[in-house]
Write a structure and sequence with these properties.
Radius of gyration: 26 Å
Number of strands: 19
Shape: globular
Oligomer: single chain
Helix content: 25-40%
Largest sheet: 13 strands, mixed
Distance between the termini: 80 Å
Length: 404
Amino acid sequence: MTHSPAPASEAAGSGWRRFARTHWAGDPVVVADAPGIGVAAAEAHALLVAAAARPGQACLTTSDALLPAPGRLLPGPGDPDTAAYVRRMAGEPELAGDGWLLTATDPLAHDFGLWARVRDVLDGLWRHVGRPALPVTAELAVGDRHHTPDRTGGRADTAGLTWVLDGSLTVRVRPEHTGTEFVLHARAGDLVHWPAGSHHLDQRTGPCTTLRLSVPARRSAALPYVSEVLGALLRDDAGPSPRRRPLPRPEPAAPDGRLAVPAPLRDCADLLRRTLAGRAPERALLLRWAALRSAAGLDPAPPPRPGIALAPAHRLRRVTEIVRVADGADGPVWAANGHAWPVPSAASERLLAPLRAARSGITVAELARAARLRPASPELTGPLDALYRARAVDVDPDPGAGRP
């Protein structure tokens, strides 16, 4: 059975509240007048041009193939906007009039301003539906006359949030365990949402630009994430690789002749048991969770900016939330804008409280007095440098700089 619901409309000023109550994790739906994602069509084009210049971040497909070396078919400085790029692609002899789709993964990871805007929009939603414990990933796409082939139906363990930035989009969504296919028609400004447990196919009959966020919403989605954390810990605990040794001959076997587990596999299993018995896995997951919490889940975050040499007269202004996570004997963790780091326990509260309270900012010297530390103490300069590099604080110039 096919169902084509009419677009839902949010009440003026309701923000995410009504969406969360009425639509989140429900049937697939197009929501008109939903909160905007904070990325204009012109900004999306600039992101696509930047992604095309980075190896491996953008891919171009036609209706039946992925182009391994798209070269000049990618957008560049000579394409002033999306419309100009679409016109150029329409005349490309290599495409021969075929439809096409350009996709950029992690498009926000190199533009902090746009990343922060999207993060703030997501934060508003999570306040109503709960915060995801796993990374929320972004995909930016522009295409013309392109239909997603049936073999790529999207990840069923994620919920979808797709903003149509320009043009119009049709999405065919098939929720699991139902006999219904939802055909959703969206235009610029609309939000398309479907719950986890759905497969989808995109259809573009004309030029269309979209920003899609995938929200992990099933326990199975955590398995690769936790496995990655454990794998990193195991590699650290294993130390340097020993010299390559030949496999034993004859093969290890029990007295009755049955094959036994080779020693390298037993050693790895023992290492896994020892690692799981310690605090390292929980600490590593806590650091990652703190970073995700400060990013509203949006991952990856843009890299930190370069640090500066802080002087006692520099005035620091907190410009975003600083997340603090206590962790017993291992000390607290701070996080901001997708980055997390441990902080000395003694200085943590005495530094964070005045930073949060000072609306007009506070100098490094004043923070040093509040924390009972010397202005040049590493226990002071280390956390403050991390906050600055994570863009959690801005620094006003030293008022004495440049005076004779």
